[in-house]
Amino acid sequence: MNWYDRVFVDTGRAAAMWAVVGFLVTFGVVRGITRRIRAKHHKPKAKRGLLGDIHIGGVHVHHQVWGILLVLVVGALEFRFSPDAPWGEILAALFGVGAALVLDEFALWFYLDDVYWAENGRKSIDAVLIGGSLGVLLLLEASPIGETRGESAMWSYLLGIAVHLVTALFCLLKGKLATGVLGVVVPLIALVGALRLAKPDSAWARRRYAGRKLDRSRRRFGVRYTARHNRLRDLFGGTPTPDLKEKPVSGNAGSGRPH
């Protein structure tokens, strides 16, 4: 325990560590369960077993609901009591659990459509990868605003922060969400993303690109780029169901999406 106290407790990172652990473990478990349920749906004669969709009063309850409730409860308890160890670490782990449950269905509440196993469902994997990476960076004590070293350096410090945030904003305008979000914590990521080519469907490209530059952007972020990113998404989240028809989430039972 001396190592744990020295590395996490004494540095004030214990809560962040448990939040990241809760997030990563929950995402792995949830994706494993949903993939097992989907496989059973493709085998009509398979035994039901313990794994299956959750219905309350005939309504299919998605696991993002439990995640939202858990995050709200944990936040209320933390703001009201701000408990010391070990309760603070327990709340942090539960927050990570709730965040994973919510982000694992990010595409569903983003599109307001049950796209969990559809092509658009890959947005959930993007959200989880960004959330997990951001949590790890914060655990490593990366700070989005750095540290001041006396009043004499205040103006240069503020100028550096302004440039940092502007480069992160450029990344977002160039359609690079992950680079922009992670770049808020790590300035070098934002700087590289801001200097490189924008995605062809981004706000930046629509206003500033034409001719050869637009063609370069389309080639850079073309079929190979998409296929490479999809392989990474599918590795973590599973391959989408081919030709799956996406239906609006109506709250009715039997949505057909393994949960």
Automatic annotation (TrEMBL):
The chain crosses the membrane at residues 15-33, 54-78, 90-112, 124-142, 154-173, 180-198. It comes from the Bacteria. Residues 234-259 are annotated as: Disordered. Keywords: Membrane, Transmembrane, Transmembrane helix. This is Integral membrane protein. It comes from Amycolatopsis carbonis.
